[in-house]
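The methods section describes the discrete structure representation at length, but only in general terms. An entry of this sort, consisting of the sequence and the corresponding backbone structure tokens, reads as follows.
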Amino acid sequence: MAKAYDAIGSNVKEKGMFRGSIPALVTPFRDEAFDEAEFRSFVEWQIAEGSHGLVPCGTTGESATLTSEEQARVIRVCVEHAAGRVPVIAGCGSNSTAIVKEHMKAAEAAGADAALVVLPYYNRPNQEGLYAHYVALADASSLPIVVYNVPGRTVTDVTPETLGKIAKIPTVIGIKDASGDLSRVTAHRSLCGTDFVQLSGNDDMSFGFLAMGGVGTISVTANVAPRLFADFHNAFLSGDHDTAVELQDRLFPLHKALFTDASPGPVKYALSRIRANFPAELRLPMTPPSETSRKAVDAALEHAGLV
């Protein structure tokens, strides 16, 4: 089946399909099991609300608590239900290169458009180890790879110089950058090329990231406010910066509130507020957000006009 993506402003292929508002989807659980029916409904809502892509089984999807079989199933369901309407970037990260290969094999078989691969965490490889990790993954799979750099979680950071080296691997097409350093957008463009896909991993920095030359965000907030965050990206990328500023101001408290406790607790709570019967259930070791966090989310939802 040919894929006809609804890209921003024009029909795009390959690297250009990955841009705009791309929610890092939560995984709904009910009675400790993956709620497939709820997930399909959630995916449909995200597409209907204008999200430009989908990421199943990222950190926000509680991938660390999923079995390999569950992870493969969640990705397959997402791809099946999206049915080519938007691209799917499957979360495939692990601190074991061998396990990432298995995840990528399953994601490729499911029909995912790319793999999101976080830097190996805990074992903290050096820069040469990071390069070797992505070389090995590219050798094992033809699936396009988006590098995910989030030093706050992995305690590992890929330097712009090493990323420039990794970007020369043909199947490495972009980065989700949650380093918090906006100057890297320019550094990466210089070292990785102008067509290297740069996606923000920090919702609250999306405006600045786009202004520096990024093309989108893999987002937590888009789970809760898909239409607003898609409209924000549409406005900015089409040159309507006044509208983008208005939407940034409307969404900013939500960007902050969703991280007032360990993610994805606050975002699942927010979804339970705006979607009837959406389960806020988390898997241990994650626990529900605090009362202070819930109040911050409530206020942010009201500020954004979502409740």
